[in-house]
Amino acid sequence: QVQLVESGGGLVQPGGSLRLSCAASGRIFSTNVMGWYRQAPGKQRELVARISTSGSTKYADSVKGRFIISRDNAKDTVYLQMNSLKPEDTAAYYCYYSDYADSWGQGTQVTVSS
I need a labelling partner for 86 at 20 to 30 A (CA). Which of 15, 34, 61, 66 fits? Predict the structure, then answer.
């Protein structure tokens, strides 16, 4: 089982930046995928970005060019740098880890508002 601890959410004005972090611990396989989903009120959870241990990435179209996902394999930690934030980015952001099974973090709230 894998445990995920997220940090970095908060309130930011439109156009601002935030950086989310997620540290994994427990039974971690050398080959895995980590990433972020988000869920806004009344909407389905959607993929934001994901990254494999080899560095292969995938982004939602809505965040391409604004968000950057990265990871430190030595620390089993994934980061999400969010730039040029928009009010529509407001959501609970969930870290996830996937190898033969999926694990989820508790979620961290990101609110973009003036």
Answer: 34
> In a structure prediction context, what are the per-residue pLDDT tens digits for the chain, which is 114 residues long?
899 999 999 999 999 999 999 999 999 998 999 999 999 999 999 999 999 999 999 999 999 999 999 999 999 999 999 999 999 999 999 999 999 899 999 999 999 999
64 SS3 class: coil
Nearest Cα to Cα of residue 27 among 107, 98, 111, 108: 98
Find tokens 């994901």 and name the residue: 50
The set of residues, in sequence order, having a beta carbon less than 8 Å from that of 65 and lying 6+ positions away, is: none
**What count of other Cβ atoms lies within 10 Å of the Cβ of residue 4?**
21
Q: How far apart are CA 3 and CA 22, in angstroms?
A: 10
Which tokens hold the place of 35? 């990433």
67: Cβ contacts below 8 Å, ≥ 6 apart: 48, 49, 59, 80, 81, 82, 83
